[in-house]
């Protein structure tokens, strides 16, 4: 334990020491002891020293001691030992008041004490304390070294740390999105579990686990009531733990990247139909302890316009792009894995592909629809990006999963064309849009939609109007002019005028169901071509 002023007063060789002022500072730690032989001693203070004096340097002007104490306190001195009745009979009241205000201990030493009788026992205690501290550090080092040699995991590191400090602790691994708690700290765990990481960092003391200016996690302390003398020992233990955690997370990342490389290659071979036998699938799957007993659905999650968003703002942001993408993928994987018991996944560029196993096609689709809506909302709120999701059809055999993958990709493509970004599109629900995609690029399709929309498109260009967008809003709102007006934030009378003008430009009656159908069909073909 660190030697404090309070502990110093308990040294068995001392008798008759009396605290004259600054009793609130008895927890100050003493790292050295020295003698004052000049009034400007504060210029050489390094912090933690306690000084002894006979008062000779201020015998002619005892009030000088007030300024000396102020400057000693500012430089981090721990206290003052003074022999009264030699050159100073008593401390001036101003000196006592300043020491009490600063919580700077002033202690009288008996008249018959030599400086050697004061200094030697204090130095012995300090040396013993340093030896104890060194032994403590060595014990911690041995414990963590043994843990590393034996391939101890992150939880074991936290458990080992908890053996050396008397504070509740937790480690937030932000790379793998995992939290590790001290085993005996259930109450602390309950508190932290109800808070976001941002709230935790605002409420508790923490240490950053950082390598090459990149943050990988946070070591959180519960800020329990700890005596000042124990804090230094806790800091030693925490510093050792931080070093081991850095090594541990780098080891985990290296292993994860190697495993991911081979796992992604296996899934890629499945999705690209490169494996021709079920036996080979089972053999390679066994390496990851995977089984494909149920039917599967392929789900593709793609970050919308990801790189362009950053390239427009700044250049050379490859590292930031990787980090944001990893954060999105991490959140995505965590939510999907928490919703489905049987999930395999791989990352391809700006996309992540999930193979979701389920015994029921109907239940799988309902559950996917529910979780993907929640996922898109949370990514948009927390990470300020949008994702588009495509879901292929349910396949009863893993050997047909490549077909579901192609369908999921088509679903994303068509979903973006029809609805824009930030949507979930199910291939089985695309219906006529799948057929429209096939014919939308033909000359006859272009001639068809131009025959209905070209006049309006050219009018907008020539007059800088947005009548085509007004028509699209009408269609989206099932030709309800009031609802379309609300969507466009315009007055109902303005909408009525625009509708009349659109009918005049198109030169046909938009009340006619036949023309309505052809307009809707033309708008869909136009969207698929844009």
Automatic annotation (TrEMBL):
Domain GGDEF as annotated: residue spans: 294-429
InterPro entries named in the record: CdaR-like_regulators (IPR051448), CdaR_GGDEF (IPR041522), GGDEF_dom (IPR000160), PucR_C-HTH_dom (IPR025736), PucR_C-HTH_sf (IPR042070), PucR_dom (IPR012914)
PROSITE patterns recorded: GGDEF (PS50887)
Pfam families: GGDEF_2 (PF17853), HTH_30 (PF13556), PucR (PF07905)
Gene3D superfamilies: PucR C-terminal helix-turn-helix domain (1.10.10.2840)
Family: Belongs to the CdaR family.
Protein name: Purine catabolism regulatory protein
């Amino acid at each position: 334990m660190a030697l404090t002023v309070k502990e110093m007063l308990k040294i068995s060789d001392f008798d008759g020491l009396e605290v004259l002022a600054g009793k609130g500072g008895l927890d100050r730690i003493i790292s050295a002891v020295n003698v004052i032989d000049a009034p400007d001693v504060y210029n050489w203070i390094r912090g933690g020293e306690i000084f002894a004096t006979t008062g000779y340097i201020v015998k002619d002007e005892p009030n000088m001691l007030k300024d000396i104490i102020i400057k000693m306190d500012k430089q981090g001195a721990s206290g003052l030992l003074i022999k009264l009745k030699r050159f100073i009979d008593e401390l001036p009241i101003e000196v006592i008041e300043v020491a009490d205000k600063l919580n700077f201990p002033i202690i009288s030493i008996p008249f018959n004490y030599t400086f050697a009788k004061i200094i030697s026992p204090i130095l012995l205690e300090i040396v013993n304390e340093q030896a104890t501290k060194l032994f403590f550090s060595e014990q911690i080092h041995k414990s963590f070294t043994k843990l590393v040699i034996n391939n101890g995991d992150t939880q074991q590191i936290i458990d080992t740390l908890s053996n050396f400090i008397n504070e509740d602790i937790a480690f937030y691994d932000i790379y793998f999105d995992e939290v590790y708690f001290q085993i005996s700290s259930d109450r602390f765990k309950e508190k932290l579990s109800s808070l976001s990481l941002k709230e935790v960092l605002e409420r508790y003391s923490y240490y950053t686990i950082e390598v090459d200016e990149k943050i990988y996690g946070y070591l959180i302390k519960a800020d329990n009531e700890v005596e000042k003398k124990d804090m230094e020992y806790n800091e030693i233990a925490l510093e050792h733990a931080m070093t081991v955690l850095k090594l541990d997370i780098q080891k985990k990342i290296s292993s994860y990247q190697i495993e991911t490389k081979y796992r992604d290659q296996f899934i890629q071979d499945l999705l690209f139909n490169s494996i021709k036998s079920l036996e080979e699938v089972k053999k390679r799957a066994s390496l990851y302890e995977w089984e494909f007993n149920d039917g599967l659905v392929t789900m593709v999650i793609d970050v919308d316009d990801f790189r362009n968003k950053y390239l427009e703002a700044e250049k050379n942001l490859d590292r930031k792009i990787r980090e944001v993408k990893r954060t999105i993928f991490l959140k995505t994987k965590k939510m999907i894995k928490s919703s489905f018991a049987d999930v395999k996944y791989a990352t391809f560029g700006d996309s992540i592909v999930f193979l979701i196993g389920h015994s029921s096609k109907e239940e799988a689709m309902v559950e996917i629809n529910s979780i993907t809506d929640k996922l898109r909302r949370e990514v948009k709120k927390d990470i300020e990006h949008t994702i588009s999701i495509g879901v292929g059809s349910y396949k009863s055999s893993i050997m047909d999963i490549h077909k579901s993958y192609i369908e999921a990709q088509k679903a994303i493509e068509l979903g973006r064309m029809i609805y824009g970004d930030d949507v979930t599109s199910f291939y089985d629900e695309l219906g006529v849009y799948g057929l429209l995609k096939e014919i939308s690029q033909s000359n006859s399709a272009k001639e068809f939609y131009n025959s209905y929309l070209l006049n309006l498109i050219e009018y907008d260009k020539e007059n800088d109007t947005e009548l085509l967008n007004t028509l699209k809003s009408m269609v989206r709102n099932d030709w309800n002019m009031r609802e379309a007006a609300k969507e466009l934030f315009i007055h109902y009378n303005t909408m009525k005028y625009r509708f009349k003008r659109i009918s005049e430009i198109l030169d046909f009656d938009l009340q006619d169901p036949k023309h309505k159908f052809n307009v809707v069909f033309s708008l869909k073909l136009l969207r698929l071509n844009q």
